[in-house]
Amino acid sequence: MQFTINRSAFIKALNDVSRAISSRTTIPILTNIKLVLNDEELVLTGSNADISIETTIPQSDTSTQLVITTPGGITLPATFFINIVKRLPNDSMTLTVEGLRATITSGASSFTINGQDVQNYPQLPEMDDVQSLSVSAAQLVDIISQTKISASTQESRPILTGIHLELTGNSVKAVTTDSHRLSQRIVHLTGTDADVDANVIIPAKSFNELQALLEGQDRVEIKFSTNQAVFDLGHTTFYSRLLEGNYPETDRLIPTESTTQITIEASSLLGAIDRASLLSHESRNNVVQLSLTSGNAVLTGTSQEVGQVTEELNATSVEGDDLEISFNPDYVRDALRVFNGKKVAIKFTSNLRPFTLTPEGETDNKQLQLITPVRTF
């Protein structure tokens, strides 16, 4: 096996597939990157068993300057190999494989490293009973960024570590919850005539890696099978396993009415919470308090060891019953960042019931964040 390639183009492909490679795996060969060269293209694969990324560098793409001399394949230690390639002196490099030993040359520099047989590398998942649709990459990024914040990071309830997607026709509803907060995004997909009926749970960790690959993409072809989701980004294909089980019924958690409401610029409240959390982070329970009385809104952060901060909020409106409620400022801060500087309506029913954040004027919960308050007595 031998080829020569532009180093910058190769590094980009290596970086893409390395997103799927973990040093913590029970299958040692998965710490390697798989390289397969045929007469027309170079195919790189990385995997950690949960996600796999395959990217293709075609010889026909002249920007890569790929010159194929001898087809073949090998797997090489990913971290070590990528660090070598990044530090080579010239703009181009040559990889030559003899047996299970690879030689990397660039300018006056030459490295020789040991690899493993490509036949020992696990095969990519096979797809059966496939449903597929094409979606806008921008809409997919929107769905991921606005819901992943509420996915659980605790493996004790694996189902909650995923993003629950319900696809009906050309509409998608995405929901996450860690039992303390909930994020929901409902999107009408543009530019697709697909009529897909699917109910899947994709690990939020998978979506984190996919989101980084979506930059600069226009559309993405998505395929769902029994236990896999595949995202086709042109020269790069992203595979993710699906989580098994039934996601909780989250609709019943969303209040249908409210007794108190504050409307405020998301950025203004975000700044106030940042300041209040300077004190709350020094306390044992990390809680701030919001008081809504007589049309006024006051935010308070307290630490018995350090002191107290009080700030009157510059709200557009405060309506309904007086209320004092305590909450984790980090949860509200994450939620506010989703709204990108919009005005938000925050609706409360009582100081012990979950409250919701939605864009001002929205009534259909298409873009919703829900947070459970903290009991302080």
Automatic annotation (TrEMBL):
<feature type="domain" description="DNA polymerase III beta sliding clamp N-terminal">
    <location>
        <begin position="1"/>
        <end position="125"/>
    </location>
</feature>
<comment type="similarity">
    <text>Belongs to the beta sliding clamp family.</text>
</comment>
<dbReference type="InterPro" id="IPR046938">
    <property type="entry name" value="DNA_clamp_sf"/>
</dbReference>
<dbReference type="GO" id="GO:0006271">
    <property type="term" value="P:DNA strand elongation involved in DNA replication"/>
</dbReference>
<feature type="domain" description="DNA polymerase III beta sliding clamp central">
    <location>
        <begin position="136"/>
        <end position="249"/>
    </location>
</feature>
<dbReference type="GO" id="GO:0003677">
    <property type="term" value="F:DNA binding"/>
</dbReference>
<dbReference type="Pfam" id="PF02767">
    <property type="entry name" value="DNA_pol3_beta_2"/>
</dbReference>
<dbReference type="GO" id="GO:0003887">
    <property type="term" value="F:DNA-directed DNA polymerase activity"/>
</dbReference>
<dbReference type="InterPro" id="IPR001001">
    <property type="entry name" value="DNA_polIII_beta"/>
</dbReference>
<dbReference type="Pfam" id="PF02768">
    <property type="entry name" value="DNA_pol3_beta_3"/>
</dbReference>
<keyword id="KW-0238">DNA-binding</keyword>
<dbReference type="Pfam" id="PF00712">
    <property type="entry name" value="DNA_pol3_beta"/>
</dbReference>
<feature type="domain" description="DNA polymerase III beta sliding clamp C-terminal">
    <location>
        <begin position="252"/>
        <end position="370"/>
    </location>
</feature>
<keyword id="KW-0235">DNA replication</keyword>
<keyword id="KW-0963">Cytoplasm</keyword>
<dbReference type="InterPro" id="IPR022634">
    <property type="entry name" value="DNA_polIII_beta_N"/>
</dbReference>
<keyword id="KW-0548">Nucleotidyltransferase</keyword>
<dbReference type="GO" id="GO:0005737">
    <property type="term" value="C:cytoplasm"/>
</dbReference>
<dbReference type="InterPro" id="IPR022637">
    <property type="entry name" value="DNA_polIII_beta_cen"/>
</dbReference>
<dbReference type="GO" id="GO:0009360">
    <property type="term" value="C:DNA polymerase III complex"/>
</dbReference>
<comment type="function">
    <text>Confers DNA tethering and processivity to DNA polymerases and other proteins. Acts as a clamp, forming a ring around DNA (a reaction catalyzed by the clamp-loading complex) which diffuses in an ATP-independent manner freely and bidirectionally along dsDNA. Initially characterized for its ability to contact the catalytic subunit of DNA polymerase III (Pol III), a complex, multichain enzyme responsible for most of the replicative synthesis in bacteria; Pol III exhibits 3'-5' exonuclease proofreading activity.</text>
</comment>
<comment type="subunit">
    <text>Forms a ring-shaped head-to-tail homodimer around DNA.</text>
</comment>
<dbReference type="InterPro" id="IPR022635">
    <property type="entry name" value="DNA_polIII_beta_C"/>
</dbReference>
<keyword id="KW-0808">Transferase</keyword>
<protein>
    <recommendedName>
        <fullName>Beta sliding clamp</fullName>
    </recommendedName>
</protein>
<keyword id="KW-0239">DNA-directed DNA polymerase</keyword>
<dbReference type="GO" id="GO:0008408">
    <property type="term" value="F:3'-5' exonuclease activity"/>
</dbReference>
